Amino acid sequence: MFLVSSVKNPYSQVISMIGSSPALVNAVLALAACHCAHSATGFPLYTFRRGRVQPLAPQKQILFPTTSNHTSGVSQSDLLNQYLILKHNALRHLSEALADSDDRYQSGTLATILLLALLELLESGAGFWNVHIEGAKTLLEDGAKYGIDSHAPLIKAMIDELILSRLECDAGGEVDGIAGVGCPTVIIMAIDLVSSQRRASIEAVLENSDLPIQSLYSTLRQIQTFDIHSWATSVVACPSLKITSISPKDLAHVGAIWKLAAEIYVSRLLYNLVEDADLLLPLVDVLRYEYSALGAEHCLVNGLAWPTFIAGASSSTSEQRVWALEVLERIWEGTMCANVKNAPLVLERLWKKQDIAREKSGCNDPGAWDWITELSSLEDRWIFL
């Protein structure tokens, strides 16, 4: 999602590819149908219940206005069926394109794969989104080997956007960056790096090799010392980004929210390795203050699903839990992305485990609750952007 308007928004160029790709046509229509169904019903087509992603299609009539000032009724089941037909057509045409050596590396094919990843986010937030992204990256790399790089920068930008995109500008010799969801590029890169370091630490444990502890400490210091206010001022002033509707003050609040969430995430990972209690600072309420300073109705709140989820997962009080649920509901109303609607269901599973652990131990030690490991133990791969 691009909540910060920019000339570098890759999705603005996708429409020009539609004529050459039936797979892309159906993928775009499937995205529209999914968003339409969510807007009409107020519920996601698929929801997370009893440990599984399941279709939600009660027999209720939805009324749509027509051009003759009348309304036309359609059931939620019909909406689901229309959506599934479009998604099936997109997958079928994509399969045909991948089987054709001429179409396999075309930009329309690659864009279709990435729109299907976006569709998984809109549909539920779980499923095969990561498979789609890795598949597109592999095709892009293979195409480069054969000298096929049609729209390669655009496809790379779409991949970056799905993994929290980076928009950069060169201002006075220094590079400042902002993601489409309002996050500083430095923080995005730190989150990506830490995720890689986390995988490396798991492999190191399995192979009895050195853990990347010092690297994690270095990344944490980089996050903590990042100057949010200077970043916000320089980004808003950057002429190539053309950010005119957001003030440096509001952008600083958004950047601070991402910074604090990243610090909570990295600190927890480090604590799991070194068990240093000084790492577990009570930052959730500080993060909540930044939300209140920004304002609940600000458009950039719609891009704060990940920080909200992190704050909710690491919360230690019932007040913090209630707050996280309220913010996620606000983001659902603003985006109609089912990943945000399903995020509270995942949090409730984590909180239930936390409450059981507290009851067994008889104490409320924040170090005892390893929410990252508990989240990793869930069956589905979730994307909370």
Automatic annotation (TrEMBL):
Name of this chain's protein: Acriflavine sensitivity control protein acr-2
Record organism: Cephalotrichum gorgonifer
Instruction: Identify the stretch annotated as signal peptide in this record.
Output: none
* GO MF term set: DNA-binding transcription factor activity; transcription cis-regulatory region binding
Gene Ontology cellular component list: nucleus
Q: Which UniProt keywords apply?
A: Nucleus
Location of this chain's protein in the cell: Nucleus
* One record GO biological process: positive regulation of transcription by RNA polymerase II
The record's listing under InterPro entries reads:
Fun_TF
Instruction: Identify the PANTHER family for this entry.
Output: TRANSCRIPTIONAL ACTIVATOR PROTEIN UGA3
| Domain of life (superkingdom) | Eukaryota
